[in-house]
Amino acid sequence: MRKLLLPLVAVLSLAVAGAAAGKTSKTVTISHTGYTPTAVSITTGDAVIFKNTDTVAHTVDFNSTTGMNCGVAVPLVIAAGQSASCTFSSAGRFRFSDPASKKKAFRGTITVTLPLVSSLTVTPKSVVYGSKATLAGKLASGQSGQSVQVKAQRCGQTNSTVMATVTTGAGGAFSYQAQPLEKTEYTLSNKGLTASASIAVKPSMKLSKTRRHHYSLTVSAAQSFAGKVATFQRYRSKLKRWVKVKRVTLKASTAGTAPTVISSVKFRSGIKARLKVRASLGPKQVGACYAAARSNTIRS
Predict the structure, then answer these.
(1) Domain final residue, candidates 113, 146, 169
(2) 10 and 103: one domain?
(3) Which residue range is the domain that position 59 belongs to?
(4) Residues 6 or more apart from 74 whose CB is under 8 A from it?
(5) I need a labelling partner for 59 at 20 to 30 A (CA). Which of 45, 161, 168, 202 fits?
């Protein structure tokens, strides 16, 4: 009997590894008292792992196997301490049970639904502060006239805010113009199904020449950058790259049109005239909620 169990254990282990490599998975635990949980909700392409924590083998049978693919033959015969998985490619309700038990706890249901969207794009994925990006997609159902709720969760916040509700058009297509203040995670929901996308934000930087050898740099964002260090750069045509001229510390912060905060600095540089120059803020200076940024390019 021990020799017969070894191949089965190996097959079941491979089945679980296959599930882990898929989209997402949920686990149903089998004990001597029954299944936990008895109701599972997933979307197409997801897997359900049946994990036997009992000291004896258990069987999991299904009312239908159409639209599902398991790592071992159905009904699943799962040895003590082992697992098996099934991936579901079709929407529907799949009932499972242990034929050896009449207890209600040994009966369960897997509800498989279509994902919210068949495609979701963000254009562009990174914007300069004050600019917009477009979230566009299609409902997997392809239905028009459906409501899609858009929520936004800003960097560092634990709660999301409802931004808008958009209505799908032909083929279930929808779009939303987002104007994030800083790195923001957008969640779109329809009938309990969700999809999400993230948009990065760069501080807006403007470099100006005020007079010979004198410059002004302003940084606009939803937070102050006073105390942060920007790098003043020039372009070396022979090297075909930008090189550091000097570092300048942003000092003054003034309130722009809410919620904008403007940080600025005036500085001097003795580099010769007519060179291409710009300023930049690196990842360490912008912090976790913003992306590294560069100013416009001007002539010294």
Answers:
(1) 113
(2) yes
(3) 2-113
(4) 61, 62, 65, 86
(5) 45
What is the spatial distance between Cα 66 and Cα 28, in angstroms, rounded to a whole number? Answer: 20
d(CA 98, CA 119): 38
164, 265: one domain:
no
Model-wide pTM > 0.70 = no
The count of domains in the chain is 3
Q: Are residues 213 and 295 in the same domain?
A: yes
Q: What's the Cα-to-Cα distance from 256 to each of 125, 230, 261, rounded to whole Å?
A: 25, 20, 5
What's the pLDDT tens digit per position in 37-54? 999 988 888 999 999 999
Last residue of a domain, one of 92, 113, 134: 113
Helices (H) and strands (E) in the chain, counts: 2, 27
Using one digit for the tens of pLDDT, what is the confidence trace for 189-225? 988 778 899 999 999 999 999 999 999 999 999 999 9
Determine contact, residues 48/38, Cβ cutoff 8 Å.
Answer: no
Compute CA 300 distance to the chain's CA centroid, rounded to the nearest angstrom. 42
| Separation between Cα atoms, residue 284 and residue 292, nearest integer Å | 8
In angstroms, the CA 299 to CA 51 distance is 67
